[in-house]
Design brief:
35% helix, 8-stranded parallel beta barrel, two-stranded antiparallel ribbon, elongated, 333 residues, alpha/beta, 11 helices, binds manganese (II) ion, binds phosphoenolpyruvate
């Protein structure tokens, strides 16, 4: 809709779209209201809609994902949580341990994370482990511990939701709900998250194409939750030198195909501590809107993913270098 289009004009266009058989998704931006019509109609005339009062322009979105497509919101999406904006000019850093282990561990992590200017603390309370015998996470107690540590240091919380039944618990304690790589195509979970009204950080599946990632985002968005943050965390290839193959090219590709913010996870992307810093630098240079990094006060004794987890001083160095690269491309950290 045009800037300043009136509510009756917008309502009229919605009614017209509905009468044509479309499901309408409304997204109100700072300047413009966007109406996304998803439907079976392929013989409608966009010009007829453009002729309606208050309409700025009308485009047919040909990609299989509609709401996640860049053409739905050419200016890009900024996910705003309190003071933090993900997808804006600032590169947002999210860091913390792989798993929440104890009150003292999370207090140390929150102090490291906040001390470097990062804005979000991460930590899994429900862990998707390849082996059922590995540590599975602290559950609700872990979420409580992380929330308390985050609040003491003015940080937001991102944590993984593995199952629909955990959604209410995550909504209670976390600011961003993470969908892990193994759950990227858990369509029942994605649909339920579509009903939630909190941002979702959606990780790319270990063998998922970029199109599949965007279709998974579409599942969440088609339920009415438009606050999706995409995350490149490496994919499985024939290469064995790294845990996964960090697909840096996916960052500019996603930015081109979609309006959603893109975050990069060089920790899972490489699986080895020494490669996290160079890949974090590469991700910022490639245009990532944020970083998701594992850091722990004593990574060699971490309950999970210690090998890829940074020591505090390494994380400080990462933040300094990410900052320098962000500045070089006209952004801040
Ligand atoms: C994690 O963030 O700790 C995690 C399990 O990530 P992924 O789903 O990318 O493996
Ligand atoms: Mn991990």
């Amino acid at each position: 809709m045009q800037e300043g289009a009136t509510e009756p004009q917008t309502e009229f266009v919605i009614e017209r779209l509905v009468s044509m058989g479309f499901t309408v998704h409304r997204s109100t931006g700072v300047r413009h209201t966007l109406l996304g019509g998803v439907g079976p109609q392929d013989d409608f005339d966009p010009l007829a809609l453009e002729a309606l009062d208050g309409v700025k322009e009308c485009h047919r979105i040909v990609s299989p994902y509609k709401l996640a497509s860049r053409s739905f919101k050419p200016g890009g999406t900024i996910v705003k949580i309190g003071e933090v904006e993900i997808g804006g000019s600032r590169v947002v850093s999210m860091a913390g341990p792989c798993s929440v282990e104890s009150e003292s561990q999370m207090e140390a992590c929150a102090s490291i994370v906040a001390g470097t200017g990062a804005q979000v603390i991460r930590g899994g309370a429900f862990k998707p482990r390849s082996s059922p015998y590995s540590f599975q996470g602290m559950g609700e107690e872990g979420l409580q511990i992380m929330r308390r540590a985050a609040d003491r240091h003015g940080l937001l919380v991102v944590s993984e939701v593995m199952d629909q039944m955990q959604i209410p618990l995550l909504l209670q304690y976390a600011d961003i709900l993470q969908v892990g790589a193994r759950n990227m195509q858990n369509f029942n979970l994605l649909r339920e998250l579509g009903k939630a009204r909190k941002p979702v950080l959606l990780k790319r599946g270990i063998a998922a194409t970029i199109e599949e990632l965007l279709l998974s985002a579409e599942y969440i968005m088609s339920g009415g939750n438009y606050e999706v943050i995409l995350c490149e965390r490496g994919i499985r290839t024939f290469e064995t030198s790294t845990r996964n193959t960090m697909d840096i090219a996916a960052i500019p590709v996603l930015k081109r195909l979609s309006h959603l913010p893109v975050v990069a996870d060089p920790s899972h992307g490489t699986g080895k501590r020494e490669y996290v810093l160079p890949m974090a630098r590469a991700a910022v240079a490639a245009g990532a809107d944020g970083l998701l990094v594992e850091v722990h006060p004593d990574p060699d004794h971490a309950a999970s993913d210690g090998a890829q987890t940074l020591r505090p001083e390494q994380f400080t160095q990462l933040m300094q270098q990410a900052n320098a690269i962000a500045a070089a491309i006209g952004r801040t950290v």
